[in-house]
Amino acid sequence: MTTRPELLGGVARQTRHAGQTRISVNLSHSKGNRIKSQLAEASAFLQNLLTTAEQLTNAQRWERILLRIFEKFIKPTLLNTSLPVPATG
Fold this sequence. Notes:
Elements: H1 4-8, E1 10-17, E2 20-27, H2 32-52, H3 58-70
Antiparallel strand pairs: 1-2
């Protein structure tokens, strides 16, 4: 888990080019490598969600996002298993 003070030590820059928007984060915190790894994981999750978003309803998109955010606090037996499996590839 990354705390807010750890993220405050970074500087972010948003750039736009060729129809793409990128956010670059420069971290000077001692735990920078761990924070970079967590940001990359979050980015990969959101990118995967974008690739499958056309197949999902708004409710299903939000359900996936909220499950991801709260997965450490929710017991697996309480989860709705009817979620469609995202396409990989």
